[in-house]
Amino acid sequence: MGRNGVADWLVQRLTAVVLGVYTLWFVGVLLCTPDMDYAAWRGLFAPLWVKGFSLLALLSVVAHAWVGLWTVSTDYFRPTWLRLVFQLTCALVLGYYLLWGIQILRSA
Amino acid sequence: MQVSVYRYNPDSDNAPYMQDLEVDIPAGRDLMVLDVMHLLKEQDETLVFRRSCREGVCGSDGVNMNGKNGLACVTPVSEVATSGKLVIRPLPGLPVIRDLVVDMSMFYAQYERIQPYLMNDEPTTGIERLQSPEEREKLDGLYECILCACCSTSCPSFWWNPDRFVGPAGLLQAYRFLADSRDRATEERLSSLQDPFSVFRCRGIMNCVNVCPKGLNPTRAIGHIRSMLLRRAS
Ligand code: SF4
Question: pTM of the entire structure?
Answer without folding.
Answer: 0.91
